[in-house]
Amino acid sequence: MLLFWRQGYAATSVAELTAAMGINPPSLYAAFGDKERLFLEAVESYQHKASQAAARLLAEAPTAKLAIERLLEAMAQHLTCPDHPSGCMVVTAAMNCSSDCSHLQHALAERRAAGTRRLRERIEQGIRDGELPAEVDAAGLASFYDTVMQGMTIQAKDGANREQLLATTRTAMRAWPSVDR
Amino acid sequence: MLLFWRQGYAATSVAELTAAMGINPPSLYAAFGDKERLFLEAVESYQHKASQAAARLLAEAPTAKLAIERLLEAMAQHLTCPDHPSGCMVVTAAMNCSSDCSHLQHALAERRAAGTRRLRERIEQGIRDGELPAEVDAAGLASFYDTVMQGMTIQAKDGANREQLLATTRTAMRAWPSVDR
DNA sequence: ACCATTCCGTACTGCCCGCTACAGAAATAG
DNA sequence: CTATTTCTGTAGCGGGCAGTACGGAATGGT
Fold first, then answer.
1. What is the spatial distance, in angstroms and rounded to an integer, between the CA atom of A18 and the C1' atom of C1?
2. How far is CA B10 from CA A19, A67, B103, in A?
3. Residue of B9, B131, B148 lying closest to B64 (CA atoms)
């Protein structure tokens, strides 16, 4: 998972994977089928924790605004954690793929879309709770904060530190619709 | 350039390049040296137009806020133009690289950093012109709008249309510091 | 203790990669 | 019209890729 995370699907060879796992190619193929299924399992393992944590964050925050804010902050923390590669694996791992693995790109794009959907649902909840005017475009707002988080992945990969990402987070929260707008 | 743009450096083979150019490998190597230098020339050609247009936009806008707003709008237009691959080549083309081409990643990261610098300078100009309070963090604001643009590249690659990106642009402009803040 | 089965390490396959040697064609010069 | 030079197309180089055939070692049931 760490190799795929750091280098992406195509740039990571089976030889690197087997070396990192301390096994030989036949064991890898017996256990996972092929490189592609191993990749999908790695993504699944990555996202299981990440998306559970995000879901809890979104659910437990008292307001939609706080939910988004905490999610952005958690993302800033996650993207710059020194214990693993920087940036979000779901965003970067299948960015440069030739045409023969476009289904991997689509699989990850689908996961990103699912994340946006959860964001939108939390914002819609905020509208129902009266925190936001009914005419607020929940999908557009979710898309905006998703865009910011994906941009933060690029920034993190380019070496931005945590404080810089948190500053971006604070700036992004200024775009939250005010009650009188 | 279009191939590198769509697929990235590593995923584009010399065979594809020669086929697209209608030449044979020896001609390519005689003209460009190797695949890497061809890539750098393609990036240079890409960015020459793009960054000139951006510089003009930034310079000609009457205020810093309008400059950033028009830049974001132009970016939304560029990222979703149907005449070429979606997304920004400088952001995506060397995202997944193995360790042996990390210098290409750094070269593109440097170009991205140069873009952020131009943004910051325009904002600092706005501060000098009294459009913004002196205590505004120009670097942080530039970094924020750069983050949004880079996130828009991911969105465009995931199929977002122009109107969606323009909506994100409008939302991002709400984060612009107001005079009384 | 014996045997069947499962595991694993070596060594390999065919394939495509970036890149190039070389021969024949085209163009230019005398 | 020939000689020389420049270009270009074919065919192939070593090498690394994803994936596998197979023999021997470890395991476990009887």
1. 37
2. 22, 39, 13
3. B131
Distance B30 CA to C28 C1' (A): 21
Tens place of pLDDT per residue across chain B (181 aa): 999 999 999 999 999 999 999 999 999 999 999 999 999 999 999 999 999 999 999 999 999 999 999 999 999 999 999 999 999 999 999 998 888 788 999 999 999 999 999 999 999 999 999 999 999 999 999 999 999 999 999 999 999 999 999 999 999 999 999 876 5
Instruction: Identify the sign of the CA torsion A95, A99, A103, A106.
Output: positive
Residues in chain B: 181
Q: How far is CA A102 from CA A59, B99, B156, in A?
A: 33, 23, 16
Cβ proximity of B90 and B43 under 8 Å: yes
Evaluate if pTM is beyond 0.70. Answer: yes
**B148 chain-A contacts, CB cut-off 8 A:** 147-148, 151
Asked if B177 and B133 count as a contact pair (C-beta separation under 8 A), the reply is yes
Taking each continuous run of H as one helix and of E as one strand, the counts in chain A are 9, 0
Considering only CB atoms, A175 lies closest to which of B97, B154, B172, namely B172
From chain B, the residues in CB contact with A137 under 8 A are 167
